[in-house]
Here is the input.
Amino acid sequence: MWLLGKLQPDFKTIADFRKENKKPLKKVFRDFYGDKFKYDKQRDLYICPAGKELCRMNHRKENPVKVRYRNYDVCKECEYKERCTKSKKGREINRSKHQDFLDIFDARTKENQVS
Here is the structure.
């Protein structure tokens, strides 16, 4: 694991470490929340926080409700993989086919909360 190097601590050590470092750990993993992935509308892909491109995957369904974006080959080599995802294959982002509307709705909701 990137955080521990070659150490192999027991469960209690890990639990204690997590309790003692709750805020710093949360900050480290927050960098890879889904909202940190930027959508490029022109190219129809996502850019991850590490600058890698996640491409749209084809679906079996003709009109899917959600579209999947991923790039497992890039994720395998990424130095941030363990911070970004628990998946052995790599990170995947799902985008609703109504995401543009949802983004506008979220922005307006935030505006109304500030007012």
Summary: The CA atoms of residues 48 and 86 lie 16 Å apart. The chain has a mean pLDDT of 84.
